[in-house]
Amino acid sequence: xxxxAMARPSAIICDDAYLAFARLTQWWAARIRPASPxxxxxxxxxxxxxxxxxxxxxxxxxxxxxxxxxxxxxVIGSHCVVERGASVGAGxxxxxxxxxxxxxxxxxxxxxxxxxxxxxxxFGFAPSQGRWEKIEQLGAVRxxxxxxxxxxxxxxxxxxxxxxxxxxxxxxxxxxxAHNVQVxxxxxxxxxxxxxxxxxxxxxxxxxxxxxxLGHLELVDDVHVSAATVIxxxxxxxxxxxxxxxxxxxxxxxxxxxxxxxxxxxxxxxxAMEKKIA
Length: 278
Prior knowledge:
With about 280 residues, this protein is an alpha/beta fold. It has helices at about 1-5, 15-30, 250-260, 265-275, and strands at about 40, 45, 50, 55-60, 65, 70, 75, 80, 85-90, 95, 100, 105, 110, 115-120, 125-130, 130-135, 140-145, 150, 155, 165, 170, 175, 180-185, 190, 195, 200, 205, 210-215, 220, 225, 230, 240. It is built from 4 helices and 32 strands. The longest helix is centred in the first third of the chain and has 16 residues, at about 15-30. The radius of gyration is 24 Å and the shape is flat. The mean pLDDT is about 95.
């Protein structure tokens, strides 16, 4: 393979072609995409108490709230809102129409794509005499460095403690991260994943498109969840996990699920009986 590549007029020889391709695209993009001009567009609204680094870019019709901080070389796209007390780290890019909620923070070199909302209220309501009483969401969202969040994804603020995405997390489009969730470093989630409230996802995990992790569960480091899988119990051992089970009346579903989990043992018992008969 290497010899065939060497015989061509021009080639890049490397041990990891996909990684090399990624780095080559970065090199190319840095040369063909114009740099955002530093400064604040005349149509932007910046509160007098906000701090915007002179090297940062605040684009047309964006709003920077009181006591917000925009660090060096950050880029705030058109129609973005950075609310009171929020902070954007150095070199981070918010694409047009991103909302960064009150007191939420995002680290350095992050990319947040259009339509994403960071710091909306978590889904918290207490039932009371046939109606729902809102539970005020008093926490925030803390996002580390080198994180990328896809278009129209949502990361909800915590109820009391903060929702946390650690360094290097990658979220695809239309991902929902509920209140008080914690996601470990370098974990990646594909489109339409839903993580319910207070779940804890370890580092270096992958979660396939459309998968769901139920609330208050824990996934340890290096867990890999297949697309459309529903994680209904904590996973305390690294590995690959898959499963789709048809819905049913809840009582019947629980009985069928319990039976399904015993099929492997029942098969072994049946084989043992067949050997005795033979």
